[in-house]
Each structure stands twice: as C-alpha cells, then as structure tokens.
Amino acid sequence: MHPKEGWRENTVYRIELLPGIADLRGNRSLTGRVISFTTGAPLPESTLRGLVVDWGTQRAQRQGLVEAVLLPDSLVYRGITDSIGRFVLGPLPRGEYLVYGVLDQNNDHRRQPRESYDSIRVGAGRDAVGELWAFRHDTIPARISTAEYGDSLSIALTFSQPLDPYQRLPADSVVVRLLPDSVPLPVLAILPRGAFDTAYPPVRKVDTALARAAALKAREDSIRADSIAKAREASALRIPGAERRRAVTPDTTGTGPLRTKPPLFDKLYVRVSARLAPGSKYVVDVHGIKTVSGIVGNPRGVVQIPVEKPVADSVKAKPDTTGLQSSVFSRTSRSPFTVHRSPFTVP
Questions:
Q1: Which of 124, 156, 205, 300 would you call most buried, defined as having the most Cβ atoms within 10 angstroms of its Cβ?
Q2: How many alpha carbons lie under 13 Å from residue 300 in its C-beta half-sphere?
Q3: Is the separation of the CB atoms in 155 and 275 below 8 Å?
Q4: Strand partners, 148
Q5: What CATH class does 144-202+258-304 carry?
Q6: Domain boundaries, the chain
Q7: For the stretch 93-111, what's the b/e string if a residue is b when 16 or more beta carbons lie within 10 angstroms of its beta carbon?
Q8: pLDDT at residue 12 is higher than 80
Q9: Are 334 and 327 in contact (CB under 8 A)?
Q10: Distance (Å, rounded) from C-alpha 203 to C-alpha 210?
Q11: Which CATH architecture fits 12-134?
Q12: What digits encode the pLDDT tens for the residues 84-120?
C-alpha cells in the first residue's frame, strides 16, 4: 500500500484500520487499530483521553465514535471507545482540537447531523478531554406534544424534545386560562416530576382496617427477619468464614449510570391554586422554555378536564337474580298452591 503521489519526506503518516477488516483466511478484526509512522519528521506524542456518555441513559457508550478536528487545518482524527466508553486517541500532532463524542447509530464511523453528539474545545498541550455527554441536537424550539389532566390541581405537559435540566422556570412564566372566557387561573409552580412530587406530595386516604393489617404484617416480617438474622449469626459462629463467602463483591466496572449531570426529561407539571373545573378546557402558555440544545421557545397547549363519574348508590336495592316470583314470599298475595277436593267420600 502506498499513496498515489508517493511518500513525502519529513512527513508523519497515520493509518486507521476500521473494525471488520479480514485477512486471507477470513479472520475479521472486531476492533479498529491506528498505525502512525514518519518519513523523517519527529513522531507526534500528544494523546487525547476521555469518556463518551449517552445522556439519555446516563451510561457510558460502548463503541462510540470519537472525532478530533485539528484547528485551524480541520484535519480529522478518529477513534472508537472501548467496552466502558473510554478512549485514548493518539499519537496526534500538537495543537488545539475540537473533539466530538458521537453515538454512531448506523456504524459508518462518520458523524451524521441527526446523530447524538457532544463537543468540547481542547487547548494545545492538554490531553484530558473529560466526559462528552452526547444528546440529540435540534435548532427548533420545543412544542407541547400533549397536555394531560394530572389531578384536580395539576396539569402534565409533555414536550417534543428533551429540556434543559438546569433550567427552573418561575411560576409567572406559565399562564393557564379557562376557555372560552380566557379567565386566568393562578399558577403556583411548574416543575419536573421529582421536584413536583417533593413539593406537592399526593394525598392518599388511609383505610384504618388496611393500616392495622399492614402494621400487623410488618411486625410479623420484623420478627421473621430477626429470627433469620439470629440463625445466620449462629451458622457463622459454627462455620468460620461463612459471612465472608456471602458478601457481595461491589461493581467496579464503571458501567452503571453516571451522576455528574442531571438526567434529561421532556415532561413538566403545572400546579394551580384553584380546582380545575370538570368538563372544561384550559389553554396553557409557557414562556421562555429552553431545550437541551439551548433553543428558547414559547409553546402553547390545550388540556381537556375529564368529567367526574357519579358515585354509585350503595344503598340501592340489587335486582332479584333468583328467578322466583315476589308473590311467593308476599304475605298479602294469594297462595300459589291450589287445594283440590278429594274424589273419595269418607262415610
């Protein structure tokens, strides 16, 4: 293998072998490889190290694509992350780089416009890229896909794309109006699910009988757990090292969810101060909502409040399903039995 123009003197060459290359016997390479050599110039020694993370799942991306663009020449150097999402890209010429971490969905080893990615600029002399949190970029503002009835005091809004997880909108950024009169309804807050449940926990009616049964079961479970713990302690005393064998080895692979950034979400909950009228429609306007791509919009949605079903009358008499006529058991009705006169005469 050699270039068409021939080998140049005092030039560094970098050959990138992609996964899937097979030898003459049909053995295929499952991982790529980079080979660097020189025809006289000093061999570069710079290396870029980092981690590619799928922000949607908060997990390190296996076999993720890494592109390092040398500035200002726009030369692209590519690499692939390992089984735990880490990459070591090099040796590279010294300089400033724009580094991309891409979720290569079609496995073509090229960054496509609709693929999730993240980027960072790395100055000359640095080798630590850090974490690249890939997400789907979009240039249009978020729309309200659905507006649903949460409860009598809340409305759930689902947006067309993930929102900025660091943004917290004030209550006056949301306007809820009753249709068709456009009467405004005071808004207390607009929050994501976790913060909303903390600020406004759901109120549940407690059944006294069920509570007593649950307390009794919890007491029985506690007694059973205490007996099991004592039995295990006794067996550990009789069998030295038994507890050590039962110990669970902690996971050190680093493949679990990462918590250095908050999770993405596309749903917000609006809390109002007055009860939502059953059977009515409300229009919801959100001002200044920002997507994870940083695009700000003012979406609008309409929610239909369901009509409350009437409670069934528990004291109403149930219909008769026995098939017997009511006259049989009625004291005032005529007896259903007929008495016939005997044809025999008693002397």
A1: 156
A2: 4
A3: no
A4: 156
A5: mainly beta
A6: 12-134, 144-202+258-304
A7: bebebebbbbbbeeeebeb
A8: no
A9: yes
A10: 16
A11: Sandwich (2.60)
A12: 999 999 889 889 999 999 999 988 888 998 999 999 9
